[in-house]
Amino acid sequence: MTPRQRVAAAMAHQPVDRVPVMCQMAIGHICLNTGSSPVELWHDTATYVDALFALHQRYEFDGILVSVPGSPPDWRDWVADQETTPEGVLISWQAPLENHSPYPLGTRTLYRRDDLPEPLSGHSPAALDQIDLEAIDVLARVPEWMLAPVREVLRRSGGELSVHGETFSPFDKLVELLGIEAAMLGLMDDPGRCHAVLERGLEYAANWGAAQVRCGIDAIKISSPYVGGGLLSRRFYGEFVVPYERRLVERLHAAGPVRVYTHTCGAIGDRLEDMVSTGIDGLECLDPPPLGNVELEDAKRRIGGRVFIKGNVDSVNTLLKKRPAEIEADVRRTMAAGAPGGGFILSTACSIAPGVPPEHVQILAAVARESGPGW
User: Fold this and answer.
1) Each residue's pLDDT tens digit, 259-288
2) Which of 365, 375, 305, 374 is nearest to 20 (CA)?
């Protein structure tokens, strides 16, 4: 089987020649392990795609996730000043750069070598009652340059690799505008207005995701990191997340033949069935203790027949902190729990953490190669 065929079969609960391997990588991990400039990695399509393929080859992944939207091709013309610091590269922009991602840049932005860009000025959260709903970006027209990384990865993969895109939960729009604490308070203080913001977030997420689906990607991840049990009760999850992600999944499926899976960090053991009720094809993270509260055997029993599972090796407590022999043992236990019956992609639970040594990541593919069709 080709890597693309292998992942497609796993997502469809069909037989595979071996368990596929595919991990999301933190931006900091990509930057630290390719030597890329954090600014170029974030804004230059060629730099970003080169880095994705370099680590794909090093780790022998069966697919590539494109998680960073492209930037305007003239982005360098907007740089007013650039300073190298111990933490990364500090950019002052002549004016706020056109940016449709949920990661704000501001007018001064620190591009960290081991993390996401951090706005230092020119960006501040809004108050819920002062938000102009009509001014919230819904990405009614997706600029072609935003799709450049997706198109380039598809071109370079030549149909051999499973190519995945990423869109965002409507709930992310609420967090983007208000900040995490104010967003949580807003759910209690003014739920009606929060729903109005979520409607706009749904339009953004659906428009961005559908544009990637029409490019021909194999799967799309809904990034939904702020809705685990440590932040939202199951009742609030049912009110503020499920209806919007269900409609988002419907819109993505309607855009073309694509598998849709949700990525949620942390404690989701109490809401696995709620997550599946949105109509997704797969579920990612399933963080094990102590990062989360999901035991893979339990998740496999409860939802494994309805969705594919992508996970759930602990990137911090296993890949970062343990020795190779211990990591291999953990990976084998994960395989033993997730692989039987099919519908399983071996992956880290969340992103590969920035400080994880590359040789630790390589253990995943080494174990998977031994799996064969019998798992």
Assistant:
1) 999 999 999 999 999 999 999 999 999 999
2) 365
Q: What is the pLDDT of residues 81-107, one digit of tens each?
A: 999 999 999 999 998 888 888 788 889
Termini Cα distance of the chain: 16
Q: Give CA–CA dist 252/219, Å, rounded.
A: 10
Which residues, other chains included, contact 141 with Cβ-Cβ below 8 Å and sequence gap of 6+?
none
| Continuous segment of H or E residues that includes residue 151 | helix 148-157
Buried/exposed code over 189-218 (b: 16+ C-beta within 10 A; e: otherwise)? eeeeebbebbbbbbbbbbbbbbbbbeeebb
In the chain, domain spans: 3-77+130-369
25, β-bridge pairs:
352
Bridge partner residues of 285 (DSSP): 264, 311
Question: What residue has token string 């953490």?
Answer: 353
Sign of CA dihedral 243, 284, 272, 308: positive
pTM across the whole model: 0.96
Instruction: Note the CATH number of domain 3-77+130-369.
Output: 3.20.20.210
Q: Burial of 87 by CB count in 10 Å (0-12 exposed, 13-18 middle, 19+ buried)?
A: middle
Q: How far is CA 12 from CA 6, 137, 222, in A?
A: 10, 34, 18
How many other CB atoms sit within 10 Å of the CB of residue 254?
A: 11
Least confident span in 95-99, 217-221, 253-257: 95-99
Task: Say how many C-beta atoms besides its own lie within 10 A of residue 287's C-beta.
Answer: 24
- Summarize the chain as % helix, strand, coil (round to 5): 45, 15, 40
Tokens of 70: 């492209």
* Burial 320-359, CB ≥16 within 10 A → b, else e: bebeeeebbebbeebbebbbeebbbbbbbbbbbbbebeee
Q: Which of 305, 306, 316 is nearest to 350 (CA)?
A: 316
Residue 81 vs residues 77, 78, 290: alpha-carbon distances, Å: 11, 9, 43
Contact in structure between 159 and 4 (CB atoms under 8 Å): yes
CB 267 within 8 A of CB 237: no
